[in-house]
């Protein structure tokens, strides 16, 4: 088992970076503001407002967007917010748990109290984020549809982090076992405790690419105090997550220098974790640009949206629209693919100096293998199966 080669306090530059990041996060903690904003949220107060930049709307740049009325476009923009942060909720539930198991793996070692205190603060912030996202999402979908579509029941950390993934019951069961085992061994292994933050850093890096743009909608608002509450929460969340990303980077890139080099087993486990992250992010979605969902898993939800009173489509029209959106090239498809390529490039830079990684992880080859042609081929096959099953069920 890996052991600490020298106390963290001896690594003065790294320790100072951790101190600065933790102190500034404490000083600029947005939990109270986020809690107050969530408490004040009333959907009717901002039902006519955009909550994100226009291009961050559900199915933006697709035939649905092109023919949508101004009112429908506002709702598609709001539904992007609901769907996007439903994914963030899943990631943050897992983060809360693995923050604690990682802290357990480090707490007994000299000088690591600072890291553990920092993670305690971050977990508290994640709980506030989850509460705010769920408060707004539930109220919004109830007002629009009378029931929940993208908002799902609370879940534990031992499940697919990617909410709409290319999975099945067997894969989900196997993923749960892997996550449980990693939580167990990382709680007693300082290298794996730090290695979790490589995966967390990659996932947070993806979020930063989109969330920076979402936060600017509030920052650039002509009267920020009058901006829709969801836009305010996007801004508060981005600021919190900027500190979380910093801590992930310091832990995964610099704190590991305080540890003995990884054993072959530890390196193998670390590489499996990053490969799993690649697998989660291998797809890209035109429905939610910036979230790497497996699109066919979204078909039933999009069908519900189109059949709702908001769009008022019949069965035939809804299916025809979905076929056009998901199986044909569009501006939205190219935009989402470009986001995926930007994420790929940023991931490669983030991990390039980690010497223990496999070549496939350093190059992010699973993600790199995707393309627009591959996306369309997957959608065309999956759509044919979905449409046939829908017709048989009617």
Q: Would you write up a description of this structure?
A:
With 394 residues, the chain is mainly α. It has one domain: Ribonucleotide Reductase, subunit A, CATH 1.10.620. 67% of the residues lie in helices and 0% in strands. The chain contains 15 helices and no strands. Helix 4 runs antiparallel to helix 7 and helix 10 crosses helix 11.
SS content category:
mainly alpha
Oligomer: single chain
Question: Could you say what the CATH architecture is?
Answer: Orthogonal Bundle
Distance between termini? 58 Å
What is the total domain count? 1
Low-confidence stretches: none
CATH class: Mainly Alpha
Indicate the CATH topology. Ribonucleotide Reductase, subunit A
How many beta-strand elements? Answer: 0
**SSE succession:** HHHHHHHHHHHHHHH
What's the rounded overall pLDDT mean? 92
By DSSP (H or I, 4+ residues per run), the number of helices equals 15
**Rg over CA atoms:** 21 Å
Helix content: 55-70%
Largest sheet data:
none
Strand content: under 5%
SSE topology:
Blueprint: H1 12-27, H2 31-40, H3 63-67, H4 70-107, H5 113-145, H6 169-186, H7 190-219, H8 229-253, H9 264-280, H10 299-307, H11 315-327, H12 331-351, H13 359-362, H14 365-368, H15 372-393
Helix pairs in contact: 1-5, 1-8, 2-5, 2-8, 4-5, 4-6, 4-7, 5-8, 7-8, 7-9, 7-12, 10-11, 11-15
